[in-house]
Design brief:
Number of helices: 11
Number of strands: 0
Length: 242
């Protein structure tokens, strides 16, 4: 640049132009953190305390997760409910939704139940009702209780009642995964799935006659589901690396 050209652009103008450019390319300020209201924070603490007690019962956990999901109490720390469940509790998103659905069904049954009505005590008892409309759920559960062999309302019996009421045949039992073949990770996943299914069946058959034993079974299921969540995360990491 010659002297004439230089004089045409005084130093002050260069400084002003540079400042303008810096302003244009400056990074946007970070988004303000989401802050829950005092009531929302109390709701979240209450729900998480219920879950943290060891995933005691499907109803407590499902109700707590349902409230966190519906009121979006997870939003201060997580972008989605699914991410919250996996990161905070090591529960698969599908499992969390299943618990929420089971809790909602029991709440519906309780709302119209008489004081002496027997309500579900395990999530497996509720699962066959998930395919029905609310009014059908009530009818199916009442019949399941009234016709339960030896007074034991099992998942299989509820499924039979649901199939009869809907006119749909029971689905044949799915072939369980074997633990002999596949990679070590696949063997661990298959063994874990089998163990979870076995403990759920034990809970279904045992009922709540012995509260201490029932609590031990539920605790075992909680540990297995936590381990299952760990396996799922490890499999996802491995998939991302390959």
């Amino acid at each position: 640049m010659n002297e004439k050209e230089h004089n045409a652009f005084p130093a002050g103008r260069w400084s002003d132009a540079g400042a303008a450019v810096e302003t244009m390319i400056a990074p946007l300020p970070p988004a303000a953190p989401i802050v829950l209201s005092d009531i929302e924070a109390m709701d979240l603490q209450f729900c998480e305390e219920r879950i943290e007690r060891g995933l005691e019962t499907f109803l407590e956990v499902g109700t707590a997760l349902q409230l966190i999901r519906d009121k979006r109490l997870y939003r201060a720390t997580h972008a989605t409910f699914d991410e919250y469940c996996v990161t905070r509790w090591e529960i698969k998103a599908s499992r969390a939704r299943q618990l929420c659905a089971a809790a909602a069904i029991v709440q519906g049954l309780r709302a119209t139940a008489l004081p002496e009505t027997i309500l579900p005590t395990s999530e497996s008892q509720v699962r066959p009702l998930m395919s029905l409309a609310p009014e059908q759920q009530q009818a199916a559960w009442r019949e399941s209780v009234a016709t339960a062999p030896n007074g034991k309302v099992t998942r299989g019996h509820v499924a039979t009642v649901v199939a009869r009421l809907t006119g749909k045949p029971l689905k044949p039992a799915s072939v369980s995964k074997t633990v002999d073949g596949g990679t070590r990770a696949e063997q661990l996943q298959a063994a874990t799935d089998k163990a979870i299914a076995g403990v759920r069946e034990l809970i279904d058959r045992h009922g709540t006659a012995d509260s201490e034993a029932a609590a031990n079974l539920v605790g075992s299921l909680s540990y297995l589901e936590t381990f299952d969540g760990h396996l799922q995360r490890m499999a996802k990491l491995q998939s991302n690396r390959s």
